[in-house]
Design a protein that fits this description.
Blueprint: H1 16-24, H2 31-55, E1 91-102, E2 105-117, E3 122-126, H3 133-140, E4 148-155, E5 162-165, H4 177-188, H5 195-208, H6 228-240, E6 247-251, H7 259-274, E7 278-282, H8 288-291, E8 296-301, E9 305-311, H9 317-324, H10 337-344, H11 357-363, H12 365-379
Parallel strand pairs: 3-7, 3-8, 5-6, 6-7
Antiparallel strand pairs: 1-2, 1-4, 8-9
Protein name: ABC transporter domain-containing protein
InterPro entries: AAA+_ATPase, ABC_transporter-like_ATP-bd, ABCG_dom, P-loop_NTPase, PDR_CDR_ABC
Keywords: ATP-binding, Membrane, Nucleotide-binding, Transmembrane, Transmembrane helix, Transport
């Protein structure tokens, strides 16, 4: 009697080769033949894969050609007037500090930042990487959830109300531009505003920003549909249709764009300031032409310390005069003032400076003037022809729109 498969007569054990042969029909002597068959399979399948990769072409990109839903045609752009709410309000922040705890140490990210943003002005926020630019925008946009914040930020003497646009452009690729803007307006404008008013406001924004030609175009995935400039413009417009009553903050709106597209985006921001909007945006090493688009500069060094805050001036004259008056070499006529400025303060790659620019700023007449103007803004708002902002009845709600819209 055999008690197990592959057991020979008179044995109380089973050889592994006998068991495998009896159970699976596999002989150990055929192992090299089977290995050769595997190599043959790999070779044949590899050749098939290479042939398919060469002959079967991937679906070609449409080259960012605008795609419209069936039955839709591009509308001609119209120029209209933009009725904006409370464009006389200005933002001011004084002695802003931000500390976070890292293990057992307290790290100061922002160190006594003083600035303001007035209607109709485009203010640049500059500094090297990790200087605290994005952190400052997060603070101004009320997006910080950890750490200790001190100082004050006011809009005409009361707490702020602003909108913030980050670096990335994230959109639903199957929606049209108009649908994206309508969705943002309906959900983000105040609940007491009727749906008809919100949709009418979207059409007004589309008109004033000359987006009518592609308002009915599908957003598409990157590389198809909207091009980079149109996609960035859509990102900015999403914030505008939410009807920001006061300020717009942008985190590196020209990041990753070529010079022509960067100019178009800054031209859009300049158009917003021309109608009274207050805009603050971070920008990294702009060209001379782009830098000239800004009215005012807030320059911070690593550690969130203010190096300069004030007007840039025609041909950057006010800015360069400040640094030249503190003992640095004159800005060459052909140099880019933005790059020259970062070089003289030691924030450019390979550059060093023996001057403590934070201390220089705190001791400068410009700093005293800034403090005096901030005090004047807070105490005598009426001297600027401004009135306190009306408190938003929905500012204490988690969402602007109710669950059923």
């Amino acid at each position: 009697m055999y008690n197990s498969v592959g057991m020979n007569p008179g044995q109380d054990f089973v050889l592994n080769n006998n068991y495998i042969d009896s159970t699976f029909g596999y002989e150990w002597d055929n192992r090299w033949r089977n290995f050769g068959i595997l190599i043959l399979f790999v070779s044949i399948l590899g050749c098939v894969y290479l042939a398919c990769a060469e002959l079967i072409c991937e679906k070609k990109s449409k080259g960012e050609v605008l795609v419209y839903p069936r039955g839709q045609k591009p509308a001609s752009a119209r120029v209209g007037n933009w009725g904006y709410a409370d464009l006389e309000a200005f933002e001011q922040n004084r002695n802003v500090c931000y500390d976070i705890k890292i293990k057992k140490d307290i790290c100061r990210i922002l160190d006594h930042i003083d600035s303001w943003v007035k209607p109709g002005t485009l203010t640049a926020l500059m500094g090297v990487s990790d200087a605290g630019k994005t952190t400052l925008l997060d603070y101004l946009g009320d997006r910080l959830s950890v750490g200790v914040i001190t100082g004050e930020i006011l809009i005409n003497g009361i707490p702020r109300d602003i909108l913030f646009q980050g670096k990335t452009d994230i959109h639903l690729h199957t929606s049209t531009v108009r649908e994206v803007l309508q969705f943002s307006a309906i959900l983000r404008q105040l609940a007491h505003i009727s749906r008809e008013e919100k949709l009418a406001y979207v059409e007004e924004i589309i008109s004033i920003l000359n987006m009518g030609e592609y308002a009915d175009a599908v957003v598409g995935a990157p590389g198809e549909g909207l091009n980079i400039k149109q996609r960035k413009r859509l990102t900015i417009t999403i914030e505008l249709v939410a009807k920001p009553p006061l300020l717009l903050f942008f985190d590196e709106p020209t990041s990753g764009l070529d010079s022509q597209t960067s100019w178009a985006i800054l031209d859009l921001l300049r158009k917003l300031t021309n109608i009274g909007q207050a805009v603050l945006c971070t920008i990294y090493q702009p060209s001379y032409i782009l830098f000239q688009q800004f009215d005012r500069l807030l320059l911070i060094s690593p550690g969130g310390k203010t190096v300069y805050f004030g007007d840039i001036g025609e041909k950057c004259g006010i800015l360069t005069h400040y640094f030249e008056s503190n003992g640095v070499h004159h800005c060459p006529p052909n140099a880019n003032p933005a790059e020259w400025m970062l070089d003289v303060i030691g924030n450019a790659p390979g550059a060093k400076s023996a001057i403590d620019w934070y201390k220089k700023w705190r001791e400068s007449p410009q700093y005293i003037k800034v403090q005096a103007e901030l005090a004047g803004m807070k105490i005598e708002k009426s001297s600027y022809g401004l009135s306190p902002c009306k408190e938003d009845p929905g500012s204490y709600q988690e969402f602007a729109a109710p669950f059923i819209v």
